[in-house]
Design brief:
Layout lengths: L3 H10 L4 E4 L6 E4 L2 E4 L7 H9 L4 H10 L1 E8 L3 E10 L2 E9 L6 H4 L3 H7 L4 E7 L5 H15 L3 E6 L12 E6 L7 H7 L7 E4 L5 H12 L3 E6 L4 H10 L6 H11 E11 L6 E9 L2 H8 L6 H6 L9 H10 L5 H6 L4 H11 L2
Parallel strand pairs: 7-11, 7-12, 8-9, 8-10, 10-11
Antiparallel strand pairs: 1-2, 1-6, 2-3, 4-5, 5-6, 12-13
């Protein structure tokens, strides 16, 4: 019978990003964004339980059977770390595992723009990294923290679910807290973080009003905050934050957000043209005075035009990024169309870009 370590090693050896286990089909790997069957036999409920429980402690098994969900991370020495989610479907266990390399990525290695370094050098404020699940948000956050760790002296506290990249103390002191083992929730962790003397706080995900409120307050009181959201554009990110508050608080939140927001990085990973790799498409919004005014005045829909014309500030729209990738031959026009929110605008940009 297949062993769990064998499957985890296979993810790395095949250059896959994820492993999926579910009843009735063989284990699957996600390679270049596509799910591919492995050569193993279809899985039974008993096999999946044995495979998944081989990674867990007795306490984790008890938690999973009670809560029916479990996020955790694990590693194989000299191979990789893995972020794992266990859940139930139709009464049986299913699993999704993602590769997390031991080596923390760099800003240059990921191809992130220079503007990201400028965000990392700010003394305080809020930086959002957004995108769908699997778009590389955690990897970008890790690269930013690695850059800070090499260039500044600071105390960094990260709150993660689960801990993914392991950071070593360098110029910075880095304390990584995992939900479920080190803290009960993002809300509880942020309630007490003020007394832990942080300079920089990394929030794995802003999920609720209390977490968003704490992030804004931390940024307002002289801390640099990095957080993620599951949003597909910079303007949607602003609207998501404002809309989570009751109506009578929203104007106050708009003013607060306009003062603390440094920038928004929106990401998508798009299959390469001709091979199994993926290219990073990004929307970058840097908060300049004009954008501050539009946030305060509830004119968020006008921000997009400032991003379009803001190249000199390091800004770009998602369509401009997609256009660059198509023009350079890294992705196909067909793939770009699958990942745009405005096909007409993208087509127009590509026509203008043709020599």
């Amino acid at each position: 019978m297949v062993e769990m370590e064998q499957l985890l090693r296979m993810i790395v050896n095949k250059g896959a990003s994820d492993l999926h286990l579910t009843v009735g089909i063989p284990p699957q790997l996600r390679i270049g964004g596509q799910l591919v069957y492995t050569e193993f036999e279809p899985l039974t409920p008993e096999i999946i339980q044995k495979l998944s429980y081989s990674l867990l402690t007795g306490e984790q098994i008890q938690w999973f059977e009670e809560k029916r969900e479990l996020d955790f991370s694990c590693g194989i020495e000299d191979v990789s770390r893995f972020r794992v989610n266990l859940y139930f479907q139709r009464g049986s266990i299913a699993m999704a595992a993602r590769v997390i390399p031991f080596i923390v990525p760099t800003i240059e290695g990921l191809g992130l723009p220079q503007m990201v370094k400028e965000y990392a050098e700010k003394p305080n404020g809020l930086v959002l990294v957004t995108g769908a699940t699997g778009s590389g948000k955690s990897t970008t956050q890790a690269a930013i923290i690695d850059y800070i760790n090499k260039t500044r002296r600071a105390h960094i506290i990260s709150i993660e679910d689960p801990i993914e990249y392991l950071h070593k103390h360098n110029l910075c002191t880095i304390n990584q807290r995992q939900l479920g083992t080190d803290t009960l929730s993002f809300k509880e962790a942020l309630k007490h973080v003020f007394r832990q003397d942080p300079d920089i706080v990394v929030i794995g995900e802003m999920r609720d009003l209390e977490t968003i409120q704490a992030a804004l307050t931390l940024a307002e009181t002289g801390h640099l905050i990095f957080a993620t959201l599951h949003t597909g554009s910079a303007t949607n990110s602003i609207s998501r934050i404002v809309d989570v508050f009751p109506a009578h608080q929203q104007q106050q939140v708009k003013v607060q957000l306009s003062l603390v927001l440094i920038g928004v990085i929106v990401q998508q990973l798009i299959p390469h043209a001709g091979d199994d790799g993926r290219s990073l498409a990004m929307e970058i919004m840097t908060v300049i005075p004009g954008i501050q005014n539009l946030i305060r005045e509830n004119q968020v829909h006008q921000i997009y035009s400032l991003i379009q014309t803001g190249r000199r500030y390091g800004m770009m729209t998602m369509n401009q990024s997609l256009c660059d990738l198509v023009s350079s031959g890294k992705i196909t026009f067909e793939e770009a169309l699958k990942h745009t929110l405005d096909e007409e605008e993208l087509t127009t940009l590509l026509k203008k870009a043709k020599p």
